[in-house]
Input
Amino acid sequence: MSGDQTVTAEYKAGPLSLRLLVPSGDLAPYISSYYRTDVEEGAIVDDWLPPEESNLRVGRADVYEAAIGEQSLTEVPPAIVSGPTDRVTRLRIGGGSFWGIGLTPAGWSRLVRLPASEYANRFVNTHATALDPSIVTMLDRLLDDGEDLAAARDMLNEGFRAVLGNRPASESTIHAVHLRLLSEDMNAVAPIATMAGMTPRTFERFCKRHFGFPARALLKRQRFLRSLGKYMLDPSMNWISALDTHYWDQAHFIRDFRATMGMKPGEYAALDHPIVRAAVSVTNQNAGVAHQALYRPEASNGDATGV
Output
């Protein structure tokens, strides 16, 4: 850890460094973290990222390419809205600096205010969305003037706080459903729908709008990420030891892995993972979990039920 108290967690290995900053407490139910990634000039890092929640990202680099699922690598716009994913993201970056803002489902609902299903497994230029214009302007400013980390964090805190608006009636339900989806004991949709007071069909629409995917797909994603996260925190263990309790057997996990990451677990383990290792390290330092999509808002310093 550096002497900069602005930075909550950091990681550096080779040409890549990642620094994580925590938003102000009143924003913690909506934003999991701010993070700054730097890749040294002349270097290129390549990785395969597991599923995650939505993000806002800005960056300029000599190389900045991404592909979700089976898509081909394509150049990424400097400022994007990146929706929630349930499959691998191939990322290739080099010689540049990047800022990211991790959003919770409640944060997507309150700050982005667009149907999450329309952005699931997609990244879109911020200037081609109906995102609040003040957020678009703030991200453009961050892109051009994000070297002072403390000043950037303060600007983001103030900017997001200004667009929160009134707390929507659906927010407490979004938060409650989010916590149920994160629970390691939860492996069925019906109890969550009952808790939310919705019919199965209404609950399906609710999950797609606020979380991007049907509830069953979300439970599957969390099961997979808990397993992958355990392995990434300790790559010395074998895959069978990392399996979530809701997997029937190793074959079940391998099928999930291939469907999600496009390769077998052994193939993934054989690849270098500079970006994933960095992300797992700082996320674990900050929140005690391996992946952004495992972040629990009530574990933050803020009021997890909103403001």
In short: The first strand starts at residue 9 and ends at 13.
